[in-house]
C-alpha cells in the first residue's frame, strides 16, 4: 500500500497592520511609531539606492491608510516611485491607474487635483518606458490643454494645500522626494514644474509617434511654464524640431530672470551653430568661449566681468561639446577632434549624441582610419544597442570604401532607431556616392521628415538633383533650405552652380561671391578671415564664370587663388592653361598643360595640348 502523507496543519499568516487592523488616530502612539519608522526606512533605502528594500517598506506603509484618505495617495506615489526606480514600470502603472480609476468612479476621496496630477505624471512616465504612447496620452487626458491645471484650478489647489496641517505638509515632504518639495519654494512654482513635465511627456509621446508638429508644440509649452526643464529644450534642439530663427525666438520668449542669465547663455550655445552677418546669433558667446578655452585662463586671475559665468562652466562636457560642434561646422575638423578626444578620454562612457557624432565625423573628414576603427570598437563594446555606435562602424567602412559593409551597418543603425536623422542623412550620402539616385533621394527625404528644422537634408536633395540635371526642382529645394538657414554658404554655392549651368554667368558670380563672403565672415574668429581650403571649389567656379564671360584677367586672378589653396590640383593647371589658350598665349598655355600632365595623365588636357601645339606650329609657319 502507498503510504499516506499526513497533511500538515497550516500555519496562520501573521496579521498585517492594514487599514482594517489599525484605525488611524492622532493619539495612537503605535500607529505614529509605525508611520515614522517605515518612512525613515524608506528614505534611508532610497538614499542608498536600495530600491527593493524601499519597495518592501513602502508596501507596508501603504497598508496603514484607508483608500479614501488623502495620505493614501501620497504613500501610493512613494511606493510607485520606488517601483519606477527599480524599473518595475508595468506594476507601477497598473497600481496607479487602478487607483485613479477607482477614485474617478467612487468620487469618495480627499485626494486633491494636485495629487491626482502627480500620480498621473508618474503613471505616464511608466507608460513611456514601456512604449505605450497612446495609453500614456490617455492617462494625461489626451491632447487637450484643459487637462492640465489652469490658473483657477491652481488657486483652488493652493487653498486645499494651505488647509492641510503641518503634519500633512511634513508627510508630503517626506514621501515626494522627486518633486523636491521645499518649504522655501512657492507651491505655485511646484505646480508649474509639474505642469511643465506633463507637457514634456506629451511632447515625447507625439515625437515617438512621428507627430513632430504636436511634439514641438508641447515641448514649447513645457519650457514656457518652466525654462529649467532641460529635457524639453534638448528634445527641441538635438532633434532639430525648430529652425534657427525659431530657436532664437523661443529663447527670447522664455523671459529668463536676471540671475539666470547663465542658463540662457548655456541654452544659446546649444542652438544651431550658424553665423549671422548682422551678429544676431549665438556665435558671439561661442567666440568668447573659444577664446577663453584657447587661452586657458587661470581662475585665480578672475575678474568680476561678464566672462565669469562662462569660466565657471567652461570645463563642462556639454560646453566643450558645443565648442567642438562649432569648430566642426566651420571646417576646423582638427580642433573639433582634439576637443572631443579629450572629452572621451576623461569620460570614457560619455554618450552625448552630438559629441559622438562630431567625434566620428571629424575623424572621417581627417581620414583618421586607425583612430576611427579603435573608437568604433569601444562604442560597440560600451553601447551595443546605440544607433550612434553602428553609425560609427558604417562611417569607418565608408571611409575605407568597403561600401557593402557600410550599407549593412547604416541599415543596422536605422533599424535600432528609425528616428535618428543623421543616420538617414549618411545613408543618402552612401547611395549618392555610388550613383544610386532613387535610394539617395529616399534616404534624404526620410532625413528631411525627421529633421524638420534642419536645412541639410533639403540641401542634399538639391545637390543630388543637380547631379542628375533636374535644375528646376533642385532650385526649389535649395530655396527651401535657404529659408531655413540663410547663413550657410554651401546653399549659395549650389544656387550658383544652377545659374552657371543655365548660362547665367553674371548671376552665378554674385551667388558664388555671396558664399565666399559668408565663409570669410565665418572664419574671422578661427583664422583671421582667410578663406579656408574647403572653399577652393567655389573660387574655381568663380574663375570659370569669368572665363565664360571672356574676362580673362579676372579668371586668372581667381584661378591663381584656387591654385594657392590647392597647389597640386591638375584641374586648376588645365583651367589656367586653357585660359591662356583662349587669350592666344599659346606658349604659356603649353607650359601649363605640361605641368598639369606631370601631375595626372588626363585625356582632355592631352587634347588641349595637341591643339595648342598645332596652333603654335602654324604661327611659326
Automatic annotation (TrEMBL):
PROSITE patterns: TPR (PS50005). Residues 151-173 are annotated as: Disordered. It holds the Pfam family TPR_2. The keyword Cell division applies. Keywords: Cell cycle, Cell division, Mitosis, Repeat, TPR repeat, Ubl conjugation pathway. One of its GO terms (cellular component) is anaphase-promoting complex. TPR repeats lie at residues 489-522, 536-569, 570-603. One of its GO terms (biological process) is cell division. The keyword Cell cycle applies. Residues 151-170 have a biased composition (Acidic residues). PANTHER family: CELL DIVISION CYCLE 16,23,27 (PTHR12558), CELL DIVISION CYCLE PROTEIN 16 HOMOLOG (PTHR12558:SF9). This is Anaphase promoting complex subunit 6. It comes from Polysphondylium violaceum.
